[in-house]
Amino acid sequence: MSTDQNDVLKNVNKLPIIAVLLVGAFVAILNQTLLTTALPVLMADLDIDANLGQWVTTAFMLVNGVMIPITAFLIEKFTTRKLFLTAMILFGIGTLICAIAPTFTFLITGRMIQAAGAGIAMPLMQTVLLLIFPVEKRGSAMGMVGLVISFAPAIGPTLSGWLVQSYHWTVLFWILLPIIVIDIIAAYIVLRNVTTLRSPKLDTLSIILSSLGFGGLLFGFSNAGANGWLSTNVLLPTVVGAVTLTWFILRQLRLAQPILEFRVFKYWVFTLTTAIGMIVFMSMIGAATIFPIYMQTMHNFTALESGLMLLPGAIVMGVMSPITGRIFDKVGARYLGIIGLGMIFVTTAMFTNLTDSTSMLYVTIVYSFRMLGVALVMMPVTTAGINVLPRHLIPHGTAMNNTMRQIAGSIGTAVLVSVMTTAALNEAETGNVGMIDAQISGVNTAFMVAAGIALVGFILAFFIKSNKKPLQKETYGTSTSQKPVTDQS
Q1: Sorting pLDDT into bands at 50, 70 and 90, what band is 416?
Q2: How far apart are CA 436 and CA 481, in angstroms?
Q3: Which of 138, 308, 370, 466 is the most exposed place for a label (fewest CB within 10 A)?
Q4: In this predicted structure, what is the pLDDT of residue 272?
Q5: Rounded to an integer, what distance in angstroms lies between the CA atom of residue 175 and that of residue 157?
């Protein structure tokens, strides 16, 4: 990287850039879970059944998951300012369509446009924060990302549960619009280009293969929980996704300028930490899906109460993420990973004996400690993996990391829901118990599986290398024959 670009990065006022990026990412992630509690009201208003209704979340996750792998290419093709503005404008247009949607088709269209913007915004935010901070301060920067990732999806169900009790469900989108507009204006004023433009060639076939590959897997896994692993709705898209994804990977390894660089997995630390991050995300998203089902259908709590049960854990994780980022800058990810995954394993095991009389206080406290464990692991482990990559691979590393987490979340949810329903049916057929007791038995079995997954992560954490000496300060870039574009357009 040129000396001029180094000077730009050193002298840039980071605070406004960080604020703009975090706000954009926050509303994008908040939007992903905002409709979960409001789904019954939305279904009644639009006269649709549950199978159609769940697509307001599934369609968002699918498009979001398809866009994320492409962002590495986009980050190298367009300036930071142009790309972020495009992402937020897309997100704003989609939000407006959802807010005025007269039919379900309009609503799904708006959700898909929202997801296209959100899929660009999240990896871009992580890439920019990693680039504007030197390596010895990246833990603190990624701690702020952890705050967004943890707090936004957890506050969504609580906020929507409260709002839809008093207002029409479209208010969930109207409250986002002013924030989006303000963030777009602020981004236009303060955002600067900090990425290196390499003008990669657009390989249309790679885009198609990426969309079919990642989209097929996400679609298949998303259907597994409701339809069973052997249904056509699961097997067909999963097989198509696996085949096209394999083709996509092989093509990327042959291209001089790949859309997504799979050679990041040649770095052992990145591969290890990505696997651990997938396990943690699987554990976090899967539990967040199961708990509302358990609380509302087996424990007679309202949607708002089940959302409130998740909220303290989200607050704990949000508060701790910046703190664990600073700790990571001093001690590295090894000890944080071991302690955090140990906590996730123990607290998950504590959820394997739930009953219809388990107190809300018990669930809330244990869940909060579980989220503390997630906070100790998530961003420190992610940052440790990204830190081993050379600068030009950071956009590919963040895109790959986000993509793998998205897939892990879908797999984790599908596996745990599938285990829960299968175990409940088996218990109801073979045991002398009522349906509620059988369902709770299914929940306990699902958490046994989740505890086993957490144990694998705990073991893997011991393979993370510890920091035996302080991190050496780095310059903001490495020399390259390709001159970066530093304009602000």
Answers
A1: confident
A2: 66
A3: 466
A4: 94
A5: 15
